[in-house]
Design goal:
492 residues, mainly beta, six-stranded mixed beta sheet
Length: 492
């Protein structure tokens, strides 16, 4: 059962004696899984509980840490006792202890369970019988009658037709795909392109994630011979949440003379030959706080990645509306998206550097596509929230800074902390003196316990009230009855 966690013990003060009860062989009215000490990772060998203890009544009051090797560990369980007339499920707990200030805030543990012993390649008669293959377990919801339970993740993919006809020159050719978890819990997903014709002419970003994300699929037709190229995109969220498959078709035509090149100089001057003009190129446009959130939101901050984006002078326009450039690098620009853009359609993006304009590209405009800036969750006293500086539950307020939330004219802002949806916020709107940034002040529900959890900010567009779009989670630490907590005004 691999698990990802740092090899560290929790402080002694946090430990309490385990209380597992007592076991008498042959008297159990149900199944009793027990850790089998000394077994290999394939489930071979080790000490069986019944054979080790013999007859009698034995207390089960011990708990041990899993030995980790580069973050991975395993435990082999045996069934020490069972009742053949009862159909049962085994629940295997997994505790992960993250010490304070470990830099692992927001770490996610992953576990896999299989039968043992596992058959190995070249298995011989000396190995245990029966042996099992390592396969993905099937869904047992039909047996447990909880197939439609809200706590299961549920994959939803909003994808356009993945087809394009483009010339065989460099350019901005992109499709945007949304992956959403419409159920509960954590949904781990992967995205993979399988090429049927050629290879490398399409790319998906990101290739994996947890819960909601926006994916960019880019085409790279430069250098390809004219023709039709096919591939398949598979988005897999596991047997419970489901998977989706989409056909990709790229039709490449021969570029026209001069296509993809800057126009010739109409008044050439005698003298040395001019240096080749390199046009700006851009292939990824997304949320400035999280580039994986594709597209733009009116009034938000966006990041644009590409090449040859810096120079002495530059302009960035959406649908002819010139906007403010906040940060410049040769391969990236950070810009303020014009508030005049209309959601639900594409905007034409053009970047001009030192008088040379890049190709106009279509960028989808949404009413809501939020992301929280890294490390931008603060306590009411103005200091960054962390495990060593949690916010007090009793009247405490978390200040969250994000971009991509809807303006008041476009939608409603809500938030989530732990498993609670908060619609009555202390404040939700533009951050003072920071164009494009939104501030959400969230009062912590008074009944939550001390814990490290997560917060999300969400936007519900007015024109689609049934569709709430939330950011990726950000870690937040809260604590009850924090001694000596001073009362500070909340910045609004």
């Amino acid at each position: 059962m691999p698990a990802i966690a740092p090899p560290a013990r929790p402080p002694p003060a946090t430990r309490s004696p385990p209380s597992g009860g007592f076991y008498q062989p042959g008297t159990s009215d149900g199944s009793l899984p027990h850790a089998c000490q000394g077994a290999t990772q394939e489930g071979i060998g080790g000490f069986a509980l019944a054979g080790f203890f013999g007859p009698g009544i034995f207390p089960l009051t011990s708990i041990n840490e899993v030995a980790l090797n580069r973050g991975d560990g395993y435990v082999i369980y045996e069934t020490a006792d069972s009742n053949s007339s009862v159909y049962e499920s085994a629940h295997i707990p997994l505790w992960i202890f993250l010490p304070a200030n470990s830099g692992l805030d927001g770490a996610v543990a992953q576990a896999e369970v299989s039968f043992a012993p596992i058959a190995a390649a070249g298995a011989t008669g000396a190995q245990p019988i029966p042996r099992f293959r390592f396969v993905q377990p099937g869904n047992d919801c039909n047996v447990l009658r909880d197939c439609n339970a809200s706590y299961f993740p549920d994959l939803f993919v909003d994808a356009p037709t993945l087809a394009a006809t483009v010339p065989n020159v460099a350019g901005f050719y992109q499709k945007f795909i949304r992956v959403l978890n419409e159920g509960g819990g954590l949904m781990f997903w992967t995205a993979k392109i399988t090429f049927l014709d050629g290879s490398g002419w399409a790319r998906i970003f990101p290739e994996s994630g947890i819960n909601n994300a926006s994916l960019n699929m880019s085409f790279f037709p430069e250098g390809l011979a004219p023709g039709v190229y096919r591939a398949n995109l598979a988005i897999d969220a596991g047997p419970s949440a489901g998977s989706r498959s989409y056909a990709i078709t790229l039709t490449v035509r021969q570029a026209n003379p001069g296509e993809g090149q800057p126009p010739p100089n109409p008044n050439p001057q005698p003298g040395p030959l001019p240096q080749p003009v390199v046009t700006p190129r851009y292939w990824t446009v997304g949320n400035a706080a999280n580039l994986a959130v594709a597209g733009v939101v009116p009034g938000s901050i966006a990041r644009i990645q590409g090449t040859r984006l810096s120079g002495r002078e530059r302009t960035v326009s959406f649908d002819g509306i010139e906007t403010v450039v906040l940060r410049v690098a040769d391969d990236e620009l950070t810009v303020l998206v014009p508030a005049e853009l209309s959601p639900g359609r594409n905007a034409r993006l053009v970047i001009t550097v030192d008088g040379v304009a890049g190709a106009a590209v279509d960028v989808p405009v949404s009413a809501s596509a939020p992301a929280i800036f890294p490390g931008a969750v603060y306590n009411s006293d103005g200091f960054a929230n962390s495990a060593s500086h949690p916010e007090n539950v009793d009247g405490g307020v978390l200040q969250i800074f994000a971009t991509g939330l809807p303006s008041a004219a476009l939608g409603i802002i809500t938030a989530r902390i732990h498993d609670r949806v908060v619609t009555s916020l202390v404040y939700a709107g533009p951050a003072p003196s920071v164009p494009g940034v939104q501030q959400v002040n969230l009062r912590i529900p008074a009944d939550l316990p001390t814990m490290t959890t997560e917060v999300l900010v969400c936007g519900t567009p007015h024109d689609t009230p049934g569709q709430t779009i939330c950011s990726q989670p950000a870690p937040a630490a809260i604590q009850r009855d924090r001694a000596g907590a001073a009362a500070h005004p909340v910045r609004e």
